[in-house]
Design goal:
The structure holds two protein chains of two kinds.
Chain A lengths: L1 H7 L1 H6 L1 H7 L5 H5 L11 H4 L18 E9 L3 H11 L4 H9 L4 H20 L8 E10 L3 E6 L5 E6 L2 E9 L10 H13 L8
Antiparallel strand pairs in A: 1-5, 2-5, 3-4
Helix pairs in contact in A: 7-8
Chain B lengths: L10 H17 L26 H6 L2 H8 L38 H11 L3 H13 L5 H21 L2 H7 L4 H6 L6 E9 L4 E6 L10 E17 L5 E4 L5 E12 L8 E7 L41 E2 L1
Antiparallel strand pairs in B: 1-3, 2-3, 3-4, 3-5, 5-6, 6-7
The chains are: A alpha+beta, B alpha+beta.
């Protein structure tokens, strides 16, 4: 049964991952590991990260910073254009990120600002974050949503498929001050390069 | 389809046609000429999904189409589920006397309070007699001990979050009140000891809907020492502490569906008196929304008083 399923193609297996588990109860762990059961299109793993429960901390442990995962699906915008905005606010504190997006002229900036404000409110209400400004953007990226397909008419009676693009936007806010990135000067980088060249050893030589 | 069609006409044919046409026109004859049907020879690599126009959408009724297709939809029931295994609240709640457990039993006021408490009201006695009809083994003292056991077990199940056990020890009305917001938190609770023996202070036997459908609600007064510590989703302490025990005076309402042979005494709720002392504040700082300001109005922090909630008895 397992070999016949793999012969059909990986896409098929991905769609039938749920059905597979119900149909193959008797297979051992070695045989099941060959079947690639990855996430299908409807799984919302990013939102499920908010449901993870950590065990209570002891008194001498460092206070674990609170994390909030938030996303918005099927935004009518291109994922490549959204990436520019996502890269802009990576590593900023939440107040700085919101103010930057407020005065940005792109269409995705308005949507992103709403998402950040929603996430901030969620953090204070549900995830026991004390100060709403004490958050920074740890991760922010965009992904491809489900496209609608239309016909694009070309000259000489030729046609092609036109995609109506949609994207998802994911953001993770962490409690605390944003971590400082080391600014490397060009002189330091050059020095490091020269040092790497000097560290090379020549093997099998005289 | 707006795509232009290609016509597969041969130039030679056209030339012969034109000569024939001129001959026909002169002779005024109408012969059925060859019909040139435009044929599409370009292969369609992609057939797009049909985008329904608004007109088309309005014309088609999905209901009519389903009926012609033979699909039968199940009848929609506009119902709201009602749970009959427990009542929806506490009927005629017990009003705890002011200063309960503050005065010691040795002073004169304490003795008066004790005397009042011993002489329970008539309605409570009647209710207890009704309960004894359905449950012959019911005694005030025995029931008080049983209530304490239910209480300890229920809160133990809450710390482990054992859903089935919790449902068997807490009624359907008390369950959401006990577990709201606790799903993604860790609670550590310990019952150290009772400072006073638990006592039945109040009993009522309301009947719902029909006359014979009896439920028994008994209020038990419990004075005990407990330890409570609540940790949030990330394991940080939100409330309470693990070492410091606290004296807790509680009025538990235990309910049972008397007419049901398989009914069990379950925790229904708690009564919080109006004179109850304020609870300890949580560890984090919370923002209270300020007063509504008109545009141009300044917020005067010096003269502003934080509004305090009214001291009313409420059932938890």
């Amino acid at each position: 049964m397992a070999t016949s399923m793999t012969g059909r193609g990986m896409a098929f297996i991905r769609n039938l991952s749920g059905v597979l588990h119900s149909r193959l109860p008797a297979l051992g762990p070695q045989q099941l590991s060959c079947l690639h059961t990855s996430a299908s299109l409807e799984s919302k793993t990013w939102e499920r990260r908010n449901l993870k429960l950590f065990p209570p901390q002891q008194l001498d442990d460092l206070r674990r910073p609170a994390e909030v995962h938030h996303s918005r699906r099927q935004i009518k915008y291109s994922k490549d254009k959204m990436w520019y905005l996502a890269k802009l606010i990576r590593g900023m504190s939440i107040d700085q990120a919101i103010s930057q997006l407020e005065f940005n002229n792109k269409k995705g900036a308005k949507v992103m600002k709403e998402v950040l404000e929603e996430a901030q409110e969620m953090a204070v209400k549900n995830h026991n974050v004390e100060y709403k400004s004490n958050l920074y953007v740890a991760e922010s990226f965009s992904g491809k949503g489900k496209y609608l397909k239309r016909i694009r008419y070309h000259g000489r009676g030729m046609c092609s498929i036109m995609d109506r693009v949609y994207c998802h936007y994911f953001v993770k806010l962490v409690e605390g001050t944003p971590p400082r990135t080391e600014e490397k000067t060009s002189f330091d980088q050059a020095k490091e390069y020269v040092q790497n060249l000097k560290n090379r050893t020549i093997i099998h030589s005289l | 389809m707006a795509a232009p069609m290609r016509r597969t006409l041969v130039a030679l044919h056209r030339a012969t046609c034109s000569s024939l046409k001129s001959a026909e026109a002169s002779l005024d004859l109408r012969r059925p000429g060859p019909l040139y049907v435009p044929v599409r020879t370009k292969k369609r690599y992609f057939v797009p999904p049909v985008v329904g126009l608004k007109r088309r959408k309005q014309e088609q009724n999905p209901d009519a189409k389903a009926r012609t297709a033979g699909i039968v939809f199940r009848q929609q029931y506009f119902e709201r589920p009602i749970n009959i295994s427990c009542t929806a609240g506490v009927f005629d709640p017990y009003v705890p006397p002011e200063g309960d457990a503050r005065l010691s039993s040795l002073s004169r006021e304490g003795l008066k309070q004790r005397a009042e408490q011993l002489r329970q009201s008539a309605t409570s006695q009647l209710a207890i007699r009704k309960i004894k009809e359905y449950d012959p083994q019911f005694t005030s003292r025995g029931f008080a001990e049983q209530a304490r056991e239910i209480f300890i077990e229920a809160h133990g199940a809450l710390t482990q979050f054992d859903k089935e056990k919790l449902h068997s020890l807490v009624t359907e009305r008390g369950y959401p009140e006990m577990t709201r917001g606790n799903r993604y938190k860790t609670i550590s609770w310990r019952f150290l000891e009772s400072l006073e023996p638990p006592k039945v202070v109040h009993a009522r036997c309301p009947d719902m809907v029909t006359k014979g459908n009896l439920y028994g609600q008994v209020t038990v007064r419990l004075h005990s020492k407990q330890i409570l510590a609540i940790y949030d989703r990330f394991g940080r302490l939100m409330l309470g502490s693990e070492e410091q025990p606290k004296d807790v005076l509680e009025y538990l309402v235990i309910e049972r569906h008397l007419v049901n042979a398989y009914g069990r005494w379950r925790l229904h709720g708690k009564i919080v008196p109006s004179w109850a002392p304020a609870k300890d504040p949580i560890i984090k700082t919370v923002m209270i929304p300020g007063p509504e300001l008109k545009p141009g109005q300044e917020f005067e922090a010096l003269n502003y008083e934080v509004p305090k909630p009214k001291a009313v008895q409420w059932n938890k």
